[in-house]
Amino acid sequence: MEQRSHWLNRTVLGIGLASLFSDVGHEMATVLMPALLASFGSSSVLLGIIEGLADGTASFAKLFSGFYSDRLERRKPLAFVGYLFTACGMASFGLAHTSWQVLVGRTLGWLGRGVRSPVRKVLLVEATTPSTVGRAMGFERGLDSAGAFMGPLLALFLVHQVGLQRTFFCTFAPGLLAVLAIAVLVRERSHTPAPARSFKLTLGALPRDFRRFVGAVTIAGLGDFSNTLLILWATEALRPTFGLVRAAERAALLYVGYNIVYMLSCFVVGHLADRINKRSLLAVGYAMATLPALGLLWPSASLQKFAFVFAASGLYMGVWETVESAVAATLLPAEVRGTGYGVLYTANGIGDVVSSMLVGVLWAFSPTLAMGWVIATSLLGATLLLRLPAATA
């Protein structure tokens, strides 16, 4: 059995490196995807639809991957396949010449993310202890976000060297490194498979406190729109001042800044989550989502405004993604842990589908309506979370 007394063990490191390399690859593709779509004449509405459909596909994959993993003796092969799918989906953008081809590639990549996500969290929980799970989650999220700012920087360098289409092909290299990290470093402890029972009965076996927690997560997630919309809005706002190419480059650099803040937030919050009440910490994170929404409504198209918006977004997202997983770890028994994380990720995915589509459409008509929706759902989610029983997390 793998030594668990120290939280930063071989398995935690392997999963963290897989997140790092995979994010380098798919963030290279993400930061350039708006420019690729713009070259096809696509709008923010279409981008919102692409992101929403991809997130929806990933959500259902997360749900059934988590459920299926509880019935397996070993979950690691699912993580391996998921990372491979993501690498292939992002690289396929290099072959795209229409928007629907981008949709197919994005959906394939996000299908892989869906398959691996709940499995990855269960592997982390089972490689650590209840008193150190927050740090492990923060470490994995921190390396993930490190890849998310390394990826755009690498993309900006490569696009000037090899061109837009060929840069997408280059995303396969870090994606393959992620697959190798899972294969070589992760050591999974075998577990007793859950008894064969229907999906409905398995959902019914989830603890009541966990189901209430997922309800609050879902409400908050209804305003958690895709970061690619932020990149697009920044590009559009800065274009009159800098021109399309330089505006896109500055938007990409702002996204790099977002991910630097996100990375630091994950590391700090992961340690805090092991020392203070996780539920209260998460509620604060939900309320913080109002800051970038208010920033976007500020009547300015300056670089400074968008720097604040991206930084505030990275700060609150570090809280959301780290602490949600840590809270779930305290609420889920081992026999339904995979299913529980699948449900949690599906709840987030449903929020992503609704928010990316709805906010993208609302923004086209009225930015005030779009950000009003974000503010309302964030504050409602925080309120519901604080109304959970005091013993929760």
Notable traits:
single chain, 393 residues, mainly alpha, Growth Hormone, Chain: A, 16 helices, disordered N terminus
Write the layout of secondary structure elements.
Elements: H1 10-39, H2 44-70, H3 76-91, H4 99-126, H5 133-162, H6 164-170, H7 172-185, H8 199-204, H9 208-221, H10 227-242, H11 244-273, H12 278-288, H13 290-297, H14 303-331, H15 337-365, H16 367-386
Helix pairs in contact: 1-3, 1-4, 1-5, 1-6, 1-7, 2-4, 2-10, 2-15, 3-4, 3-7, 4-15, 5-6, 5-11, 5-14, 9-15, 9-16, 10-11, 11-14, 12-14, 12-16, 13-14, 13-16, 15-16
Would you give an account of this structure?
Residues 1-5 have low confidence and may be disordered. The protein has one domain: MFS general substrate transporter like domains (Growth Hormone, Chain: A). The radius of gyration is 20 Å and the shape is globular. The chain has 16 helices and no strands. The two termini are 28 Å apart. The chain has 393 residues and is mainly alpha-helical.
